[in-house]
Fold this protein.
Amino acid sequence: MNSLFEYVLRLGDDSLIVGHRLSEWCGHGPILEEDIAMTNLSLDFVGQATALYEYASEVEGKGRSADDLAFLRFDREYKNLILLEQPNGDFGMTMMRQFLFDAYRKPLFERLINSTDATISAIAAKSLKETKYHLKHSSEWIIRLGDGTEESHNRVQESLDTLWRYTSELFFEDDVDQELTLSGVIPSMEGIKEEWSAYVNKVLDLATLTIPTNNWEYEGGRLGMHSEHLGYILAELQYMQRAYPGMEW
């Protein structure tokens, strides 16, 4: 296995899938400003995915383009976090999913800037600027909804109860990660998990939300084992390339 290719693919798949989920809000946002904001967030993630897939294509060296990697793989070949493929639900559900992911992505990119791989370092530096805004945006909404009306509080608490089970996979590590950590390409998850936990606890406390106490954990996305939701995403995402092979904008 080419560990570098596998790792870059995982990052690219995360960005593509969450970017697609956010794009589903276009024209459906609760207010005009949020409709525009979520569309812009989606564009940020698609831009990150493009850069990552282009590098993954180069690393793999088998002639597959960024578009091939994005649109012409089967579901078991995608390595995104299961958290990111979960349905949008209401606005609170989408913001909770985004918050839990943003709180992980920020410390990850901060450390990836120091990668011994120059391309990963450059992508992380550019992406970090966007990610800081993403985290600020989602954090403010979680606090606003959690510490808002009784209905908004109950809804976003339900969102947290639903999505918390997927957060353990944020810190998944296998042979791929261990090899790249030893060579200085990527950081260890230990420090990232500590920072994520401290920040998430702080924001949820301000939002008067309670972390679920059950021990349910769902993992497998990094190994290509997904929920049923990914299949529906790919059916929509891949339609044009499947119907008109080789199409380019």
Summary: Residues 32-60 form the longest helix (29 residues). The chain has a mean pLDDT of 95. The CA atoms of residues 102 and 136 lie 9 Å apart.
